[in-house]
Amino acid sequence: xxVRAQELAGTQAIGSGAVAPPPSRTLADLIVDxxxxxxxxxxxxxxxxxxxxxxxxxxxxxxxxxxxxxxxGHAFAGEAVSRGAVALVVDHRVDSDVTQVLVRDxxxxxxxxxxxxxxxxxxxxxxxxVTGTNGKTTTTYLLEAVFxxxxxxxxxxxxxxxxxxxxxxxxxxxxxxxxxxxxxxATMADExxxxxxxxxxxxxxQQHRVDGVRYSVAVFTNLSQDHLDYHASMxxxxxxxxxLFTPAMSDRAIVNLDDDAGRRLAxxxxxxxxxxxxxxxxxxxxxxxxxxEGVAFLADGVPIRxxxxxxxxxxxxxxxxxxxxxxxxxxxxxxxxxxxxxxxxGRGETVEAGQGFLVMVDYAHTPxxxxxxxRAARSLAKDRVIVxxxxxxxxDRAKRPEMGFAATANADLAIITSDNPxxxxxxxxxxxITPGAERGAKERGARFVVEPDRRAAxxxxxxxxxxxDVVVIAGKGHETYQELANGTTPFDDRRVAxxxxxxxxxxx
Length: 508
Known about the structure:
Layout: E1 5-8, E2 11-14, E3 25-26, H1 27-30, E4 38-40, E5 46-47, E6 49-51, E7 61-64, H2 77-82, E8 87-90, E9 99-102, H3 106-117, E10 126-131, H4 136-149, E11 154-158, E12 161-164, E13 167-169, H5 178-190, E14 195-199, H6 202-206, E15 215-220, H7 234-242, E16 250-256, H8 260-265, E17 272-276, E18 283-291, E19 294-299, E20 302-306, H9 312-326, H10 331-340, E21 349-350, E22 358-362, H11 367-380, E23 385-389, H12 400-410, E24 413-416, H13 426-444, E25 447-450, H14 454-464, E26 470-474, E27 481-484, E28 487-490, H15 493-503
Helix pairs in contact: 3-5, 4-9, 4-10, 9-10, 11-12, 12-13, 14-15
């Protein structure tokens, strides 16, 4: 049974039709976890689907009138009814004769109701939620290997998509909307998945997309500047992450003690295992080594030798190891599984075309992650580090100069280019990056150039590179597209890098 992401008028629904229809459920069955809900109409109505997009409504649907940043779902109640909705979930009465469920917050209600509709599929699984600014994707891939080694059938939900027992499927966003997430979990349950590693974004937490999921373990990797276009402050960003570390959502916690925000979460009240290089970490990494072949260290005395490059991957491996221990997985089994993961799409992924230097594509799109990947590149380089870097449009503007600084402070040559400009002018974005790049160049003696065309920027990097150099193409990682003002166009940094290596005569 396959899960497919289908685009619907600019947004996407997950796996529509992929799950066999659940047993007939009445409206009363679905709102049992909403004790304050008020019903006007019949609570005994049978419900055939749960929907939050009016153009996805069919006969028998329960429609959630969700307030969004741009549109209010209450305005589409009439359309939903005309398409067959038998009941509406609203935060105020609307002009309609169909049954209405009045709640304080429609988004808040959507998770528990969707979970009830799909039979609470997460309840029969071990679900690990991984949150943090960086490291989520890698940690989930490491956990996938741990689950499989422990005899479980694994699933992944996250930035690179869905994986069901190793089979990849597309996913439109890191944390899907609640009805889509519950449908996906139901599909995984139908395929006998019994352990899921899920990336949990701050947006997903603040918008209640994961409400209705009970996490066996909540994992915190780190917190650094990102998403301040959405969150009003770093404190609000932290508070969104912290929701996962409450008894209402999770049974126990795994927390990075090397991170200041992690130290705050360590006192959340959940049973907690801490990890890190700190001397007071519950699971501490010692005898740490980083080479071009990967990282090696002892995790609480247990040897791990991972082919993942960069010292920051020590923390990712520790997070997976600590989670495995909390789930009762044998330490040696966990260590072997973690050591077996050879790579993660778009995370330090190498491009091999016979060139005489290392080319790495990485999803690094925050100042901290750019610094981390460039430090890793420095440890691998015999000569220079070259980075191609930009910033996404319609996203956190405050991080743009800091991205520029991270690039020139840690590389010998930074090529400032476009990432996904979206509705913004690429040159305007670059203009906000360059003050930080100038500061870093002045302090560290690096140089930078501006090339707005991303392909041309990658070509320039390949032309400049020589044996002993390391080239990092940062920002887009696994993505296979570029988002422009006039639409989306195919663009894969990995493929483009290989093409430009051949074009510049550097490939063999």
